[in-house]
Write a structure and sequence with these properties.
eight-stranded parallel β-barrel; two-stranded antiparallel sheet; alpha/beta
């Protein structure tokens, strides 16, 4: 596969005009290798725009004829596979929601047995690397042809990204399947236009093999994912700005390892903070109960027991008693401060 491999196109094929205009403008950049568009759209609720189906496949094959570029669509059912193969689509991808469903992946794998079209597997919505790996294995077992990976981030309820990149998961996947082409999908990671460039550059720095990006002639009026789509013109500027790194050498190994560890630290810090916040909320509830029952805030006996119990675990946790003491004292002081303000309300 060419490196970098650039896949771009609208989130959805919405109409003949939108599909052809977008694909023609993207092809004219001369920087994109494959045109993408969703023709079946998995939507959270029924009744929204669920894609253009076979009609969309027709518009895409027309775009291929006009631009000479190969086309790629998402398949989620055996019916999609049949229709995409009938339209002789060049490449396929399995979406995040489908990767997370082993029955669906199995059915798609069987429908693609021996077909030999390049097939890309997006990561599942949740950061379960074994689920992603399982999807690869199901498809490998059916000998579907060349398999690639797409990192599109993991569902998250907080933070600046629509889907948290959790780079360490993608890096680990790359280590499990070093021969597979891995693309980054900054559009679905970001969910907005402002972060696209930095996420795309980050993936290039990490040695990804290319990008999948959503682009639309009129992003603000797109029927799906309008916040994250960019015009073909902006796409051209973005692609020009990316610095692709050379093949992996000794120091790239180091960069990868460091990146993976840092991403793990970021993840753990997030979990630590959320646990701290939950702990303080429980302390607040205790404060309310103490106020209602007219009980003093400071309960030295209870606290001494907590400290004793925790310090006894210092060795097995491989944390120094000094460090644990400082952390515990800070926790205790904060809890007392909060309960004090509850008491005086
Ligand atoms: C898409 O590529 O438009 C799409 C639906 O992606 P994902 O499966 O990553 O949400
Ligand atoms: Mn989309």
């Amino acid at each position: 596969m060419k490196k970098p491999l650039i896949v771009a196109g609208p989130c959805s094929a919405e109409s003949r005009e939108q599909t052809l205009a977008t694909c023609a403008a993207i092809a004219a950049l001369g920087k994109v290798d494959v045109l993408r568009a969703g023709t079946w759209k998995p939507r959270t609720k029924p009744g929204g725009f669920e894609g253009s189906g076979v009609r969309g496949l027709g518009w895409l094959t027309k775009a291929r004829e006009l631009t000479g570029l190969p086309i790629m669509v998402e398949v989620a059912t055996t019916d999609h596979v049949e229709k995409a193969l009938k339209a002789d689509v060049d490449m396929l991808w399995i979406g995040a929601r489908t990767t997370g469903s082993p029955f669906s992946v199995q059915e798609i794998a069987e429908a693609l047995r021996g077909v030999g079209k390049p097939l890309y597997i997006k990561n599942p919505l949740n950061p379960d690397i074994d689920l992603w790996t399982g999807a690869v294995e199901r498809l490998e077992k059916c000998d579907v042809g060349e398999i690639g990976l797409i990192h599109r981030g993991f569902a998250s309820m907080s933070g600046e990204f629509r889907n948290a990149p959790m780079w360490h998961v993608a890096i680990e996947m790359r280590q499990r399947f070093p021969e597979m082409t891995m693309l980054c999908d900054p559009s679905h990671i970001c969910g907005n236009r402002t972060l696209l460039q930095s996420v795309a550059q980050r993936s290039a720095d990490l040695g990804f093999d290319g990008l999948m990006l959503e682009s639309h002639v009129d992003p603000d009026n797109a029927l799906s994912d309008s916040f994250q789509q960019i015009t073909p013109q902006v796409l051209g500027l973005l692609l020009d700005s990316i610095q692709w790194r050379s093949e992996r050498g000794h120091s790239e190994q180091f960069v990868l390892a460091l990146e993976m560890l840092r991403s793990e630290i970021d993840q753990l810090d997030g979990e630590l903070l959320s646990i701290l916040s939950r702990r303080m909320m429980v302390a607040d509830k205790i404060g309310v109960a103490k106020r209602e029952n007219n009980v003093a805030i400071l309960q030295p006996e209870r606290w001494n027991k907590i400290v004793e119990r925790i310090l006894a675990q210092a060795d097995s946790l491989r944390l120094s008693r000094e460090f644990l003491s400082v952390v515990l004292e800070a926790l205790h002081n904060e809890s007392i401060d909060r309960q004090n303000s509850i008491m005086s309300r």
